[in-house]
Amino acid sequence: MREAARFDWRVDRLATIDSTNEEARRRAAAGDPGRLWIVADEQTAGRGRQGRPWVSPIGNLHASALLIDPCPQASSPQLGFVAGVALACAAEDLGASRAKLKWPNDLVVDGAKCAGLLVEGAALPGRRLACVVGVGVNCAEAPEGVGYPTAVLKRDDGGAIGAAACFERLAARFDEALALWDRGEGFAAIRTDWLARAAGLGTVVRIRDAEATREGAFEGLDADGRLLFCGTRGLEAIEAADLWISPEWLGESRRNE
Fold first, then answer.
1. Each residue of 48-90: pLDDT tens digit?
2. Model pTM greater than 0.85?
3. Within 13 Å and on the Cβ side, how many CA atoms surround 136?
4. Which domain holds residue 186?
5. How many separate domains does the chain show?
């Protein structure tokens, strides 16, 4: 079912799809002009970072935004922070003020993951760029046995947040965040908003990247959105890694290694 969306976005709602990100990529390859949301009740092959499976039952939010040429290609990774700010603001709007952003692409409550983001790009003819921003939110059910704590996104008073209400606020907030970002020119403002909602800022964290697993302090983000990590090697700017924040996360990680 196709419907008109606010802010000149279109929304396609589907019952079941393999992956909303994959569907958005297919639409881009077929010539879709972008500013399109794909929303599915259920995904049969949802995925997260590094191709990890994303459990996608009915009742949770599964949505992907398609953007065509939203910025210079070098700025496209910033879309993950744009979407993160939008998601955190949407959670606040819905009464879930305890939800915080965990670098690089998660929303957590008390250290437990309740939502994730996946930004992907694809080259189009004529040197055009398609960017897909996928969002998955545990509105009804949190997966078990995935190797890290999970939770359902709820209001601070314990009330439920439905997938439809979550998407409505997310779509509005994403449009606002895109305008603030201004094709990358406003990333400093997005970075400030992201850090204001960051989980674990200034605390001891643990990271695992291609080199090693180590502990140090989460000092913030650099001007490009890289994690500023201060450990035994001094201050580093980490571009890609897995991050654990609390002692509970560290213990859970060790049990699953």
1. 655 566 667 899 999 999 999 999 999 999 999 999 999 999 9
2. yes
3. 28
4. 2-196
5. 2
